[in-house]
Amino acid sequence: MENLGETIKAHNRGILQGSQSEVKSPASCSCRNPNNCPLQGECLKKSVVHQATVKTNSEESTYIGLTENTFKQRYTGHKHSFRNKENATELSKLIWKLDRSSTPYTIEWTILKNASPCKIGSRSCDLCLTEKFYILTSERNNINKRREIVSKCRHRKKHLLSNVTT
How far apart are CA 62 and CA 94, in angstroms? Predict the structure, then answer.
């Protein structure tokens, strides 16, 4: 039976080796048709703050979000929320509203910044802080809610000792 010290060392070793072995993938896009890539061939970037600009004939709205995974995984989640009314984001609520009123729209995706997520021992998460900065400084019609600015970092939980499995 392991003692607590060995369990903590094993957990820390696994986390640290995992973060050191992260090598950027040489491929930058895995779309079936690269011409339809939402980010013009850059959809496999990880740990990004992204912006969706929804344009209609009469107005333009922006949504700012983040992902620790690849942008493509988050984009797939957004597309799922456009079709299903579960785990709604402010972006999906806007899309549902436009669909109900039969308003034509287009969505343009951009990566605002790459940022590193919360690391062991750090007191802040650059990814979450960067998203909050862009939400606060957005000049356009931003559909993000105020509660996103005061929300806690969701990336810190993976480093808690309560998540250690033996």
Answer: 10
CB 71 within 8 A of CB 45: yes
Q: What count of other Cβ atoms lies within 10 Å of the Cβ of residue 46?
A: 17
Instruction: For residue 75, give the nearest of 35, 107, 103 by alpha carbon.
Output: 107
Alpha carbon distance 46, 33 (integer Å): 20
- Whole-model pTM: value is 0.75
Q: pLDDT tens, 122-154?
A: 778 899 899 999 999 987 789 988 777 878 787
> What does the alpha-carbon distance between residue 80 and residue 92 come to, in Å, rounded to a whole number?
9
- Would the CA dihedral through 124, 128, 134, 140 be positive or negative? negative
